[in-house]
Structures are given as C-alpha cells and as structure tokens.
Amino acid sequence: MVFGSLFYLTVFLPPVLLGHWALQAFAGRWPRAATAAANLWLLAASLVACALSDLPGLPWFLGCAVATDLLARGIAAAGARRPRLRKALLALALGGNLALLGFFKYAGVLARWIDALAGSPLVPVPELAVPLGVSFWVFRAMSYAWDVERGVHPPAKNPLDFLCFLALFPVFVSGPIVRWADVSGSFRERPFSAARAASGYRRLLVGLAKKVLVANQLAPMADAVWALADEGGGMSPSMAALGAAAYSLQLYFDFSGYSDMAIGLGRLLGFDFKENFLWPCASASIREFWRRWHVSLSTWFRDYLYIPLGGSRRGTARACLNGLVVFGLCGVWHGTGWMFALWGLWHGLLLCLERLFGPKRAKGEPPPRRPAAVAAFRFAAAHLYALAAIVFGWILFRSATPAAAGVVLRSLAGAAGVSPASRALWLECTPLFEAAFAAGAVLSFPVVPALRRAARRVLPEGLVWTLESLAATALGAAALLFLAAGTHRSFLYFQF
Questions:
Q1: Fewest C-beta in 10 Å: which of 170, 287, 322, 431?
Q2: C-beta of residue 377 within 8 angstroms of C-beta of residue 202
C-alpha cells in the first residue's frame, strides 16, 4: 500500500478515520478511556499500514521500538545517581539505532568499496531490502532516547503509546520527524473538534493536489533531462535550465505536498504536527533556506549534532567545521552516492562563507537604513543568489554521477554541445507540464497567504472559510481523477 495512492485514500483511510472519530465521540463522558481506545485503534491501523506496505520490514521496526523503549526506561531509572550507566544506556540506544540504519543503507556500499580496494570479491555484497521509512523512524527513536537522557521529558507511561507514536502512519514513511515532546499530550487527551477536522481536510487535499497536479506533471521533463545527461548527451542552455527548474519545483511540491498531507491527517486525528516547509523559495540566503526547508530535519541535526559538537560557541572556525560535518552527514543521510555528500558539503560551504563574509548584526539589531533603490537591488540580488545556489545544489542532488552533473552544468553554460537526442525533450513540454510549471513557479512563493489576508480584509470570515473549503475540495477531486487515470508516482522522499 503506497501512501497517497487511490487505495490508501479511498479504502484504507476512511474506515480508520471513522473508527477513530467514533471512539473519540465518547471523550466527553469517558475522556481517558476514549483516548486510550483511540490510541490502540491508531496503533493497529498504523501496524496494518506498515504490514501492507512493507511486511518484511515490520519485525525490524518492532525490534527498534521495543529496544528503544526499554533503554529509555533504563536511562530514566538510572537518573542522576548513576550517570555512567545512564550515558552507557544512551550510547547503546543511539549506537543500536545507527547500526540498524547503517546496516540497511550502507552495508552494500561498504562491501563494494572493500571489494574494489582488494581487486577481488573479498566481501559478499548483501542484497538488502531497506525497511520502509527507516531513516525517519530511526531518527525519531534516537531523539526520544536522547531527550529522556537530557530530562526534556520522561519515558511514555504506556509503552503502547510510544509504539503508536513511532508507528503513526501519517508520518511513518517520510516524516516530518515528529518528537515525543511535541505530541505526548495528544496521547493523553485528544478531543474531537469539527473545526480541527475541517482544517485537516483542507490541508490533506491541498497536499494531495500539490503532489499529483504539480509535482507529478513536472517529473517527466526532469526525468528526461537527466536520462539524457546520464548518457552524456548535451542540450541547449534553455533546456538544461528548464530541466533544473522543473526538478527543483518537483522536489519542493512533492515533499511539501507529503508534509501537508501528513499535517492534515494529523489534524484529522487530533495531533498538531509542526510545519515542515516555510516557503523556502522566498529565502535570501542559504542560512534562511535551512530555516524554511525540511524544518524537522534541519532542527534535528541542529539539536542533536551541531549543538553537541559545540555549535558556534567555540569561535568562527569551529562553527564552520561543525557546519561542514553536519551538512556532510545530512547529505549521507539522504543516500549512499557521493553526489548526496557533495550536495551536503556544498550547503555547508555556503553557510561557512555566509558566516565569514555575510552582514554582521547583533541579535535584535534592525538592518541599516538605505536608499530605496539600493535596498531593492540588495533584496533582489540576495534572492537571486539564494535561488541560484539552491538550484545548483539540486543538480548535484539529482545527478547519479559527477559526469551527469557536469553535463547539465556545461549545458547551462552552453559548453556541452547539443545532442540530436535533446530535440525529443521538447515533447515533454505538454500543456499539463506548462500549466504545472507556471503554477509551481508562482505558488512556491507565499502568494496564497497574501491572497488569504487580502480576502479577510474585504470578506466575512465565514465566506473565506467556505471558499477555501470549496477550492480544496475541487483540487482534491481533480487529484483523485488523475490518480484514477493511473498517473500515481511514489513520493521522492520514499527513497531516502
């Protein structure tokens, strides 16, 4: 069962939601019993979803959950009186989870490296099926154990609540990386709210539309451009730019669409998941980009790696080194190829340069006053720099090899030559692609919030709410029609 597929939306999801709401209907009279029953219902539904999607990976997930819960309880029991035992149990929890992640994602790569160095098949290359969502639920498990050790929160009173948290189907496959501290209260009390459900319904349908109506329609062009680049075929600068822009928009609408669906489903179930994308295309620097892009991942690396390494407390040079380490590991987390590591190091390098040469202001100090023309130029230049740097990074991210990235980059500069096969790329410029590209280019900036604010200034709140609900329903219906026509594509972040 694929998240966001027609089966998921029309067969699996309705009975899960109806069953959850039926149990929550008793929250007014028996709040604890109703919430406990709803938690068990969600746990059962999440395990069924996992089994239908990846049955061989289910035992690994359950083993991770049980071991992490037991170790977290041991950490809490050790307390301040036995710090060595507490640290040892934390190391075991973190090391065990990292070993699980590394075994499935990197054992094959390591074996091939050893064989290449030895010049013979010295180590058998394991053919492993990576458990679904392992990169995300391992990070959630690690943050849970670490936060227990730091005293951020105690272990969950009910082990089944922790298991439900780790298995929760809206965020199981590709995040956001939800933390126990943010949702623990919802496992104790989660009353039904029609307003919350309506908000979740709209967010779910908008996320589905972003994925199906925008990201999926941009994918054929991006795939065709990189298929040609993989073969070493050059293309015109305009085609290379179109392919790079199409992939950048595809990735944003694909993953932000997934996050919107997860947040919407969370609201339908009574959970408040934090925002994961805050209009990253509107960034004026790479530092700002990482405050807006995949927020749950960037804050995870900040809180559990960058700050423990010393953050920026030990001088500029150490801060730059810490940033390079963090973003290099962020790239490796995304995949095993060298290009992912290069993508991470590219962002780490830019952050280092911005720290060294960017504007310096004390915290809370307002920006200096400048003439309007100068301010407008600086504003435009900063945003163009950020967009160019981000798209360059996505070219590295999308390319399987440095050679393929080199073809795209040389094509952008007009130095790669134009392969005869590149003429066929224009066949991908269908009306659907053009419409999706135009919509993506506009809606990747905070246009919708601006329109909503303008509408609320001149229209009654109830009418704005109705219009938003009708628009979301229409977009969701259109997306379902496309899914029924067999145009479903898996979310890009499923591979990570």
A1: 431
A2: no
Q: Length of the chain in residues, anyone?
A: 496
Per-residue pLDDT of the chain (496 residues; tens, 9 = 90+): 677 788 889 999 999 999 999 998 887 778 788 899 999 999 999 999 999 988 999 999 999 999 999 999 999 999 888 999 999 999 999 999 999 998 888 887 777 777 667 676 766 767 778 898 999 999 999 999 999 999 999 999 999 999 999 999 999 988 899 999 999 999 998 877 888 899 999 999 999 999 999 999 999 999 999 999 999 999 999 999 999 999 999 999 999 999 999 999 999 999 999 999 999 999 999 999 999 999 999 999 999 999 999 988 888 899 999 999 999 999 999 987 889 999 999 999 999 999 998 777 666 667 677 777 877 888 899 999 999 999 999 999 999 999 999 999 999 999 988 898 888 898 889 999 999 999 999 999 999 999 999 999 999 988 999 999 999 999 999 999 999 887 667 777 666 6
Domain membership of residue 365 (yes or no) is: no
Residues 93, 212: one domain?
Answer: no
Query: Whole-model pTM?
Result: 0.93
H/E segment holding residue 36: helix 31-54
Q: Structurally, how many domains does the chain consist of?
A: 2
In a shared domain, residues 279 and 334: yes
Same domain flag for 323 and 245: yes
> Could you give the residue ranges of the DSSP H alpha helices within 413-460?
431-443, 447-458
C-alpha 182/C-alpha 139 separation (Å) is: 15
How far apart CA 383 and CA 472 sit, in angstroms, is 30
Catalytic residue numbers, as ranges: 334
Write phi, then psi, for 257 (nearest 5 degrees).
Answer: -65, -45
Find out whether 268 and 262 touch, Cβ atoms under 8 Å.
no
**Residues 78, 86 contacting (CB under 8 angstroms):** yes
Asked if residue 254 and residue 229 are part of one domain, the reply reads yes
Six-digit token string for 327 = 């973003």
How far is residue 70's CA from residue 17's CA, in Å, rounded to a whole number? 31
Residues 26 and 175 both lie in one domain: yes
Domain around 489:
197-358+370-495
285 and 382 both lie in a single domain: yes
Per-residue exposure over 316-330, b if at least 16 CB sit within 10 Å of its own CB, e if not:
eeebbbbbbbbbbeb
417 and 435 within one domain:
yes
Whether residues 180 and 221 fall in one domain: no
Query: Helix, strand or coil for residue 178?
Result: coil
Q: Domain boundary at 192, 221, 253, which? A: 192
